Amino acid sequence: MQTLYLGCLALGVIFAIVSVLVGDVIGNALHGVFDFVSVDFVNPTVLAGGITVFGGAGILLTRYSDLEAGPIAALSLLAAAFLGVLMYLGVVKPMHKSEMSNGFSMSELPGKIGEVTVPVPAKGYGEIMVKFGAANSLHTAASFEDEPLPAGVKVVVVDVREGVAWVSEFEKRRGVDL
Question: Which of 41, 67, 117, 172 has the greatest number of beta carbons closer than 10 A?
Answer without folding.
Answer: 117
